[in-house]
Amino acid sequence: MSVEVLVFRSRRAVYGVMASQVAGLSRRVHSLDTEAVSLVQAVERRSVEDCAAIGERLFGQCAPLQDGVEYLILDRDGFGFWILGPIELRTIALEDFRPIPTVISRCYSNEALRAVFLLDDCIGFLVDLLRIRMSIPGNPLA
Amino acid sequence: MQDSRSIHDPDQLEAYLRQRETSDKAEYAEPLLVRLAVCRIGEQLYAMPADGLKQVCKVESVAYVPGCPSVIAGLIQVGGEILGAVDLAKLLSVEGASDCRKGYAMIYEFGSERIGLLVSAIEEVVEVPVDDICEQDFDQHFAYAVSEIQYFDNKIPYIDLQRALSSLLDLDEEMPV
């Protein structure tokens, strides 16, 4: 058994979103997508620039150069998230998913991270689009 | 006048002989040893219990976990397992020890949970007599060190892992040492 996952990378980490939660994926057109929020920023809860600076120093090996193209992901309720490419659609075997270790889940404050997975010698985090949307303050769809 | 230490009947003699036998055993008993792992964090040496230590491995990479306190270094891969990793330099407030993420992971097992403790280097695993562990009043900088051991010419802090990790783990199950 396997799960289809849209995989993308920030400068600090590898993330994945289950394809079943995604209603649409397109290149982002700025003038039309002002409502969209940065998915990485929502997950990491800090400025993307700050994450990039720290991540480049510590975790460069996990962050291949991004192509600079912004993509828009629409969830099943039409809420938009933008992410920097490249994005890959990967089929990940169930045995490559693991629960988040207790020492982590006791400490972290982000309920949108649901599991971890192994992908090409990297560890990725499965992000729950529904939960991340709930955590965004002032979101009318929350 | 009777000497209180003198023996007047067989019962007393038997009791005396038993007591002497016990004392002799205690006198010639092997000293109780405890196994400790000596590691380096930055420039400072520390001793930790070795009984729960299952494995030591080189840290290849640490996956950042968003939203965690800085003592949580992130996630590491050990033989196909994904483990949470604690940055001991941060936990023990050791200054100038930022190389732990490129050092070694000491994999401990606490009940059903395995966890990686990141250190700069592992020196060795030693057995020392329990009597060589001396209680000390360390200042707050060594909040998790309750005693120290003699290691070659130096005395090094002995870390109470149960105390150090109690806020990060459910430590209801039996802990090593």
Main beta-sheet strand count, sense and barrel state of chain B? 5 strands, mixed
| Largest sheet report of chain A | 6 strands, mixed
Percentage of residues in strands of chain B: 35-45%
Distance from N terminus to C terminus of chain A (CA atoms, Å) equals 32 Å
Mean pLDDT level of chain B? 82
CATH homologous superfamily name of chain B? CheA-289, Domain 4
- Summing up helix and strand content along with how strands pair, one would put the structural category of chain B as alpha+beta
Q: Which fold does the CATH topology of chain B refer to?
A: OB fold (Dihydrolipoamide Acetyltransferase, E2P)
Structural class assignment of chain A: alpha+beta
Shape designation of chain B? elongated
Largest interface: A-B, 29 and 24 residues
Secondary structure layout plus pairing:
The complex is a heterodimer of chains A (142) and B (177).
Chain A: E1 2-9, E2 14-18, E3 22-27, E4 37-38, H1 39-44, H2 48-58, E5 70-75, E6 80-84, E7 88-93, E8 97-98, H3 102-105, E9 113-119, E10 122-127, H4 129-134
Parallel strand pairs in A: 2-10, 4-6
Antiparallel strand pairs in A: 1-2, 1-7, 3-5, 5-6, 8-9, 9-10
Chain B: H1 10-28, E1 33-41, E2 44-49, E3 53-58, E4 72-78, E5 81-87, H2 88-91, E6 104-110, E7 113-119, E8 121-129, E9 133-135, E10 145-151, E11 154-159, H3 161-165
Parallel strand pairs in B: 5-7
Antiparallel strand pairs in B: 1-2, 1-8, 3-6, 4-5, 6-7, 9-10, 10-11
Write up this protein.
The complex is a heterodimer of chains A (142) and B (177). With 142 residues, chain A is an alpha+beta fold. Chain A has a domain of 94 residues: SH3 Domains (SH3 type barrels). Chain A contains four helices and ten strands, in the order E-E-E-E-H-H-E-E-E-E-H-E-E-H. In chain A, the strands form two sheets. A six-stranded mixed β-sheet of chain A has the order 7-1-2-10-9-8. A four-stranded mixed β-sheet of chain A has the order 3-5-6-4. In chain A, a hairpin with a 2-residue loop joins strand 9 and strand 10. The radius of gyration of chain A is 15 Å and the shape is globular. Chain B is 16% helix and 42% strand. In chain B, strands 3-6-7-5-4 form a five-stranded mixed β-sheet. In chain B, strands 2-1-8 form a three-stranded antiparallel β-sheet, with no helix packed on it. Chain B is elongated, with a radius of gyration of 23 Å. The termini of chain B are far apart. The interface between A and B is medium-sized, with 29 and 24 residues.
